[in-house]
Every structure is written in structure tokens, then in C-alpha cells.
Amino acid sequence: QLSVVESGGGLVQYGGSLRLSCAASGSILTRYVIGWFRQAPGKEREGVASITNSGRSTNYLESVKGRFTISMDTAKKTAYLQMNSLTPDDSGTYYCAVAPVLEDTPYHLKEWGYNSWGQGTRVTVSS
To answer: Are the CB atoms for 45 and 110 separated by under 8 Å?
Structure first.
């Protein structure tokens, strides 16, 4: 069984930075993707970024490109989401999820395919 745990959320001021961590443990395939998603109150959950476990392939939501960076520590099975230049629109609960994949190519940011989800970590950006 695969377990996924997020950490690193908190309160930050407009323009500030946070780094989120997503640690996967347990039974995991040789090739997989870790994705970050977020959900603001009253809004649907949206994919923010994804990375293959090799760290070679990434994908980003257009609105976070240039501000967020996803990275991977393959040995630790941990993905990180460095978030800079945060705005109140970035507030929400951030979830990470794992998807088994066959190829080391950029993976989509839709929820389907991701079959193991964490409980989420809250990010609040004050204006």
C-alpha cells in the first residue's frame, strides 16, 4: 500500500515563498509521477505541477510558470514544490498524489490517473 504525506504549508505574506514537500512511502512502482494539486474554498481542485520520479520530466499550470518549481529527490521518494512570488490567488489546500506511469514524459495535471492522494496541507497568502 502506498502512503503519501504533504507538509510545509502555512501563512505567508503577498510576494513571499513557501516550499511544500510530498513524501511517498510503501509499495511503489519503478516509474511514477508525483503531482501537486490545489483547491481554494468554493472552487474545483486544479493541477499545479507534476514530475516524474526521475525528475527529468515536469509539467506546470500556466499561471504558476516562472514562480513555482517542482523537484524530486528520487532516493527519498519525495517531491518538492518551491513557490515564490505568492499571491492570495495561490491560497488553498495543496494536495499531492501519485500516478503509476509507463514513460518518463511530462504528465498531465488532471486528477484521473492519480490513484494515491495525501490529506493536504493548507497554504494561506495574506494580501
So the answer is: no
